[in-house]
C-alpha cells in the first residue's frame, strides 16, 4: 500500500488524524484489523484531482455488526494518494465500540 501514497500523505476523519506515510499505514492497518467486515463503495465522483467516494462500512462490535455510511474525499497527486478526508457521524461507532464504564 505504501507505493500508493505520497511521502506526506494525510488522513483526517471525525475520530482520528494521521500525518505521513508511516502513520497512515499503521492507522489503516489498525482499522482493518479492528473489525471492518466490509467496505462497499456505493457511488464515486471525480472532479480533477479529487475523488469522492460514498461508502457503506460494516464494522464488528462486541454485540452485533453495525453499518456506517460516509463520504471520503481523496486528493490524487502523481497517481498517488496525497490526502484523504472522511466524513461520517461517529456516534454509532462510539456507542457500540467504546468500552462500557
CATH class category: Alpha Beta
From the helix content, strand content and strand pairing, which structural class follows?
A: alpha+beta
Which segments are poorly predicted (pLDDT under 50) over 5 or more consecutive residues?
A: none
Let me know the largest β-sheet. Answer: 6 strands, mixed
Strand order of the largest sheet: 2-1-6-5-4-3
Query: In angstroms, what is the radius of gyration?
Result: 14 Å
Globally, the shape reads: globular
**Domains, number:** 1
The chain-level mean pLDDT equals 88
Order of secondary-structure elements: EEHEEEEH
CATH architecture: Roll
Strand content: over 45%
The strand count comes to 6
Question: What is the name of the CATH topology?
Answer: Nuclear Transport Factor 2, Chain: A
Helix count from the secondary structure assignment: 2
Q: Can you walk me through this structure?
A:
The chain has 101 residues and is α+β, with helices and mostly antiparallel strands. The chain has one domain: Roll (Nuclear Transport Factor 2, Chain: A), CATH 3.10.450. 20% of the residues lie in helices and 53% in strands. It has a six-stranded mixed sheet with strand order 2-1-6-5-4-3. The longest helix is centred in the first third of the chain and has 13 residues. The chain starts with a strand and ends with a helix.
Quick rundown:
By secondary structure, the protein is an alpha+beta fold. It has helices spanning 21-33, 91-97, and strands at 5-12, 17-19, 36-47, 50-59, 66-77, 80-88. The protein has one domain (2-97): Nuclear Transport Factor 2, Chain: A.
Which tags fit this structure?
101 residues; alpha+beta; Nuclear Transport Factor 2, Chain: A; six-stranded mixed beta sheet; 6 strands; 53% strand
Amino acid at each position: 500500500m505504501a507505493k500508493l501514497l505520497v511521502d506526506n500523505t494525510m488522513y483526517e476523519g471525525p475520530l482520528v488524524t494521521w500525518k505521513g506515510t508511516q502513520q497512515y499505514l499503521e492507522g489503516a492497518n489498525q482499522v482493518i484489523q479492528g473489525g471492518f467486515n466490509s467496505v462497499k463503495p456505493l457511488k464515486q465522483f471525480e472532479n480533477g484531482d479529487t475523488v469522492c467516494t460514498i461508502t457503506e462500512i460494516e464494522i464488528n462490535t462486541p454485540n452485533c455488526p453495525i453499518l456506517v455510511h460516509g463520504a471520503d474525499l481523496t486528493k490524487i497527486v502523481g497517481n498517488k494518494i496525497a490526502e484523504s478526508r472522511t466524513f461520517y457521524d461517529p456516534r454509532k461507532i462510539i456507542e457500540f465500540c467504546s468500552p462500557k464504564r
